[in-house]
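Appendix B. Extra example for self-study. Work through it before the problem class; the solution is given directly after the inputs so you can check yourself.
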Amino acid sequence: MAKPRPAPRRAAAKDADRRTFITPEGVDLKLDIASVGERAGALMIDVVIILLTLIAFSIFLLFVLSGTGRALGQALAIIWLLGFFVLRNGYFAIFELGPRAATPGKRLMKLRVVARDGSRLRGHQVVARNAMRELELFLPLTFAAYQTAQGVTDMAIGLLGLLWTGIFALFPMFNRDRLRVGDLIAGTWVVRLPRRRLSYSVATSLAPEKSRYTFTDKQLSVYGEFELQKLEEVLRRNEEYSIIVVARTIRERLNLPDSGGDDYGFLEAYYTALCQRLERGMLFGKRKKDKYQR
Amino acid sequence: MSGEAQFASLRFREARTDDWERLEELVRRIERGRAGSLSDEDLFDLPVLYRAALSSLSVARETSLDTDLVGFLEALCARAYFVLYGVQPPLHRRIGAFFGAGWPLALRSLWRETLVAVLVMLLGAVVAYCLVAGDPGWYHSIIPEDLAGGRGPQSSVAELRAGLYDGGGGARDMLGAFATYLFTHNAQMALMCFALGFAFGVPTLLLLVYNGCILGAFMAVYVSKGLGLPLAAWLAIHGTTELFAIAIAGAAGLRIGMAVAFPGRLSRTVATTKAGRTAAFAMIGVVLMLAVAGLLEGVGRQIVQSDLIRVAIGGGALAAWLLYFYLLPVRREDADG
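Solution. Structure tokens for the complete assembly:
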């Protein structure tokens, strides 16, 4: 809190990801769009899972194949071809059709596919967004493989192809909602849907009159909502050093004497008192965003 | 005023935490796919708890500065929303709706694009036929070596004839695997044809023309050796289904390309999404059709050696598809997948 302008860039970045999403009950859920990094991470996890499954599947089939005749060999060839096809095209779709609307990779990254218009995610949307992966993922991969496998003149073609298909692969980086081509076609987007536990309240349940500390109205009018929420973060993290620093900063600002080692208790009491004051203000429509607002 | 009564935020939390936690528990069970374990009472309470949590969220946003509380409620409400509003009808109903309405309706609305795709393929075929008939040297620049499989203008009549009736010699005892290979390969190509439509449909058109060219070049070689009709029969048994499916995949791609290039009165995003819906329905169908074509090609063509029966099967399949897609009565309101 000592710094004059605390991290305005991060606050703006957080708001840039927020999208209005109004439920039929008229409440805005304010969903967060997943970042490119999170989605790339999810994709990588999924690709690794697919490759591992494919390898395990192949080893298993080879194992079975080695001790059998031709008739069974043919059956195994069919299984492998279909298995490969289903893994390549069906893996994403099958998981996204499930109740979580997310592949294992997306689940780990706490992401979910959502219909942009707020209705339920339909089967055809999942199919459309994943059929486009052909263009976004497999075509660039093909060109990349082609490039490494061929001679110099063909390499030029491979490079051009890679460049051209790269436009589609990098599509999410060039639009506000970070839509893939598949998302655009299907009318979906990928949002962050973290599971959060309700933590304890930082405020003490002690009534202010019974608290060791009392604050005057003037002392409470120094800070606003922004500082209150930073204070909440500090209290929640509860690191000794930052507690000491923050407590000293606040005391200097409020002209209070040292509290004799009980920095946490002091901050907790100040948080509670300030929170009460600001919340009462909110009820009357008076909000104080931060310490600069008069 | 007593201190506890004053501090609304804390009281607010304490009074409602149990309900929120119950809702979270129910949502978690449904997300894990164990919706069946919910009792009647749970199911009855779920929407009530959800609405209560939503109203808690609204109140908390307006009156509370507790970020932990607001954050928790936002996450909980979003999860509950998708659980409650994301409920899909049972799978068998969705499959029924797809075959009963979604698929034929999508193809009906794609008829113009389908026609264009068929014509473009025909154009490619005619051009390639004329080129190769005029100068057999063109054959090799049109058809890649691995696809030709040694067949070409230099092949003798006997060799070509053998190709038509023996199914390429030793492949006979691997019919099933061969059919599967053809299916997966063709399905992958069809998906590519569809996906490439996004680039304003141009690559899709090129792929269609090229597909036609291959056909025309083959035709020209066989006709020049007096094997035109047997080749037509050989192609017809699966080709009617396969080429139709490829045309539909191209049509789906074209629809998307057109929506991207000329969105008309709608915004580009809305137009694309609308086209995507039709195209997706068509593409599910294309994959199914290619599975049928793979079976006909891999199994039917090897077993059935008579030209007449081959043509009859191919023609029958084509007639059945046309009947199903364009003439069958469809209830429009069922089209929901």
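Self-check: Strands of chain A lie at 18-19, 31-33, 111-115, 188-192. If your reasoning did not lead you there, revisit section 3.
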